[in-house]
């Protein structure tokens, strides 16, 4: 028995095709809450004061930062949220100038986007991450086993891991101030402190209406796009901007929720066990051929 590379790949293709026959795969269903809370960030209003960073630090009882919150020199370098900072402000210069021919910066707040159909929740094998009705992607440390699949799955590269904590390390990210908005009826810390009202907290449907009204009322000021309305199926954090989102650190992402692809493939591959059995059969045949070939070579050498 001999098998060529083309034959092997063909067999794998047949095995995959068998798994996608009608009736094998279950249709994917969105698990997004109908109208969760969210936040609208207006980048034309943000002044980069870092008050939101300070509020986040206090509400979540995070360690004191190496650079004080009133020191704006930290904006000279791009930053990402990490295990000790759930939100950060970055500054971008996109070429815009004011009446005095000075460059006008755009400030961007970065944190977990709390997706409607989160890839991290789909990837979590223990249920440590869940999407709540109030919009928060909630983390349960007692269920986490530290596999870090959520970190690999997140399209925004947000979850951070406590590598420096050898005993019971945690995955860390913005909590959406879950306790405040679910039990106290309050706002997230960052939204409650913003001095220029660049962050608006409310129901997602209302925030979308507000965002589109601002864009329609002043089309010369805003880009005609609400970031987060459709990206990866929609997010609880929404943004409007006066400059191209690509110029200020936002990724171009598909509208399709990430779990719609991954869970559909998983369902197709493992439906009725046909695909794993076919795959293992092909791999077994290859191992058999390889074993015989090695036995012949060993006999020849002897």
TrEMBL record:
Cofactor names: [4Fe-4S] cluster
Residues the record lists as binding [4Fe-4S] cluster 2: 56, 174, 177, 190
Membrane-spanning intervals of the chain: 269-289
GO terms, biological process: cellular respiration; formate oxidation
CDD domains for the chain: HybA_like
Main location: periplasm
Known partners and oligomeric status: Heterodimer of a large and a small subunit.
Protein's name in the database: Formate dehydrogenase-O iron-sulfur subunit
Source organism per UniProt: Pseudodesulfovibrio hydrargyri
Organism ancestry: Bacteria, Pseudomonadati, Thermodesulfobacteriota, Desulfovibrionia, Desulfovibrionales
Designated gene of the protein: fdoH
